[in-house]
């Protein structure tokens, strides 16, 4: 949503804005009918989103300061203070265009790296930063840009309750959020391709078909908040973090604002914009002083601001876009599902693969998509690819095929054919497509490397340590320009080079906490302690709120008391006056609390719920590792 001047939608605003919106759609229809939308040109562009971290590899809130220091129009802000975006100049498709695109990307990333260093930060290219913690997803860490705050307020008011994320993969994540900031966890490499107006419907449908295999070989977001979820978790996270729909007693087909789409496009791009007005609630308005139809009448090209603003509050994975460049209107498809990273070369290989495939649309599919693909199969393919990456199987022209086989045997040759249609030689195409081939043959996407690395590290390191090691190596390989299929498993010795790695309680605590309920039998609590060698257990109520602590000594003393109940319950002898600590507290402070109160551990609590346990041994072990 590039329009900086947006306002909450009042009743009066809605009437005026809706009139401008209808005029914009009518104007677009007129321009298409009269051949005013640019034809005969194919251009490609991209947006590079990236994360900023400190020397401890945690998110660093330096984005606004860095952006101010750069003073380059290619750079712009993102939703969170730890993210920024680079906009590449569009390139006309032809020989050498992708090399020029990569050169500009590398030059701008060099500026990004140099500027970040001035603020004790570094750049990481990844779909979701592995080291992000819940405390960084606080409303205060949203970029202080009015348009983000306005959108956050509107979406929260429409939802009327906290946003709920529930993503299940190998692990499961269930968490609530009081803002849209979880969306900022997602960083992508958005690819724009200008489309011939008369072919837009067919090319858009083909882009939908291609989404699954292209995503499967570019996945790079398998972890969020220490949980292994989908190979491209962004797909689920983005949808849920902006979902304003309500659960009700009756089932109603209501599309989320982040979606794959409902059906095939039939004739024109206008269908998409009409459907979006009909199906999606208007969220924001802007001051628009002239009708786009009046602009057309006097012979000028309208910007269609109302249509673009509404379009910017919807997040299709393949988004139809209208723009004006060099005084000429054009249509393009924005590929939004490809993640950022792992390296600029990998991103460019993904771009070339997708563009080549887009240019090689099968002729027999034109106007006949239902004859070859069921739309629900195509959408199902996309979700399966997001969940399993290269391990998925996809339905392709009615046949179930392993994704690796589909890419190697069918799609790579097809992409090369598409590139040759625009004058790109076999040698030039092979330079990029060979990266995809090697990645697929080795079955090592960014997500595969992260998952395999973390599984390898976990027997020797904590979850937090493993995430730090992986993030450190991601940054190193990216700076060295090594494509992801050549990355080696990380070594634990990397950990020693990361300063301030044990900065807070949640960096050393154990999140695998055994608890009992206050209405459990006391014998049950005693058995748990004996089975697992514990001397104390946190006590929760039926809502999961921390209500006390029961120790083996408490149980012994209670059982020896003449007032013991029969059968005794945990609530009968638990201690309710329990010292707790928050996850953001420093280790030094946690240690002082333990020493002052002569205790060996502290429950770590957020929002009255236990999320971990930190012990004196945890702190001593961390200090020993720092000194080793």
What report would you give on this structure?
- The chain folds into two domains: 7-442, Creatine Kinase, Chain A, domain 2 (2-Layer Sandwich), CATH 3.30.590.20; 506-627, CBS-domain (Roll), CATH 3.10.580.
- By secondary structure, the chain is α+β, with helices and mostly antiparallel strands.
- Helix 5 (200-216) packs parallel to helix 12 (375-388), helix 10 crosses helix 13 and helix 13 (403-421) runs antiparallel to helix 14.
- Strand 3 (75-77) and strand 4 form a beta hairpin.
- The strands form eight sheets. Strands 2, 3, 4, 5, 6, 9, 15 and 16 form an eight-stranded antiparallel beta sheet that branches. Strands 19-20-21 form a three-stranded mixed beta sheet.
- The two termini are 49 Å apart.
- It is built from 21 helices and 23 strands.
- The longest helix is centred in the first third of the chain and has 23 residues, at 11-33.
- Mean pLDDT is 93; it is low at 249-253.
């Amino acid at each position: 949503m590039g329009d900086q001047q947006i306002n909450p939608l009042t009743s009066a605003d809605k009437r005026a804005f809706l009139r401008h919106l209808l005029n914009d759609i009518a104007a677009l229809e007129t321009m298409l009918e009269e051949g005013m939308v640019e034809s005969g040109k194919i251009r490609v562009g991209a947006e590079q989103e990236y994360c900023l971290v400190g020397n401890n590899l945690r998110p660093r809130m330096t984005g606004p300061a860095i952006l101010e220091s750069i003073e380059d129009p290619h750079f712009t802000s993102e939703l969170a203070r730890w993210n920024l975006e680079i906009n590449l100049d569009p390139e006309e498709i032809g020989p050498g265009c992708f090399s020029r695109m990569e050169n500009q990307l590398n030059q701008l990333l060099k500026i990004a790296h140099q500027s970040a260093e001035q603020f004790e930060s570094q750049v990481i290219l990844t779909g979701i930063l592995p080291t992000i913690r819940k405390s960084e997803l606080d409303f205060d860490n949203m970029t202080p840009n009015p348009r983000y705050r306005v959108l956050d307020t509107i979406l929260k008011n429409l939802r009327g309750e906290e946003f709920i994320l529930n993503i299940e993969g190998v692990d499961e994540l269930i968490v609530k959020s009081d803002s849209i900031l979880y969306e900022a966890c997602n960083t992508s490499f958005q690819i724009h391709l200008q489309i011939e107006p008369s072919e837009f419907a067919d090319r858009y449908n083909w882009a939908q078909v291609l989404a699954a295999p292209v995503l499967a070989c570019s996945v790079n977001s398998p972890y969020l908040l220490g949980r292994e979820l989908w190979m491209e978790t962004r797909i689920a996270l983005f949808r849920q973090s902006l979902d304003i729909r309500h659960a009700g007693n009756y089932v109603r087909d209501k599309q989320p604002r982040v979606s794959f789409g409902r059906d095939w496009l039939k004739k024109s791009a206008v269908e998409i914009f009409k459907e979006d007005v009909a199906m999606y609630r208007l969220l924001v308005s802007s001051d628009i002083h002239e009708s786009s139809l009046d602009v057309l009448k006097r012979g000028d090209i309208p910007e269609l601001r109302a249509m673009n603003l509404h379009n910017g509050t919807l997040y299709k994975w393949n988004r139809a876009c209208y723009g004006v460049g060099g005084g000429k209107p054009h249509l393009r498809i924005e590929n939004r599902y490809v993640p950022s990273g792992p390296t600029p070369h990998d991103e460019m290989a993904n771009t070339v693969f997708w563009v080549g495939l887009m240019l090689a649309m099968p002729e027999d599919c034109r106007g006949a998509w239902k004859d070859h693909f069921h739309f629900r199969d195509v959408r199902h393919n996309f979700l399966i690819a997001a969940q399993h990456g290269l391990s998925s199987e996809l339905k392709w022209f009615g046949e179930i095929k392993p994704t690796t086989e589909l890419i190697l045997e069918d799609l790579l040759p097809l992409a090369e054919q598409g590139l040759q249609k625009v004058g790109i030689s076999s040698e030039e195409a092979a330079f990029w497509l060979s990266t995809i081939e090697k990645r697929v043959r080795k079955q090592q996407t960014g997500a595969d490397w992260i998952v395999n690395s973390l599984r390898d590290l976990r027997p020797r390191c904590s979850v937090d340590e493993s995430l730090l090691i992986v993030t450190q190596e991601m940054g190193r390989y990216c700076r060295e320009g090594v494509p992801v299929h050549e990355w080696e498993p990380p070594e634990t010795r990397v950990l020693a080079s990361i300063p301030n790695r044990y900065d807070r309680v949640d960096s050393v605590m154990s999140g695998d906490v055994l608890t009992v309920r206050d209405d459990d039998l006391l014998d049950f609590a005693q058995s748990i302690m004996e089975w697992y060698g514990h001397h104390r257990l946190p006590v929760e109520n039926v809502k999961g709120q921390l209500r006390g602590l029961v120790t083996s000594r408490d149980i012994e003393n209670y059982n020896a008391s003449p007032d013991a109940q029969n059968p005794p319950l945990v609530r009968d002898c638990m201690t309710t006056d329990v010292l707790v600590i928050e996850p953001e507290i420093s280790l030094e402070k946690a240690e002082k609390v333990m020493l002052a109160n002569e205790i060996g551990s502290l429950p770590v609590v957020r929002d009255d719920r236990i999320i971990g346990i930190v012990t004196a041994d945890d702190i001593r072990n961390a200090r020993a590792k720092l000194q080793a």
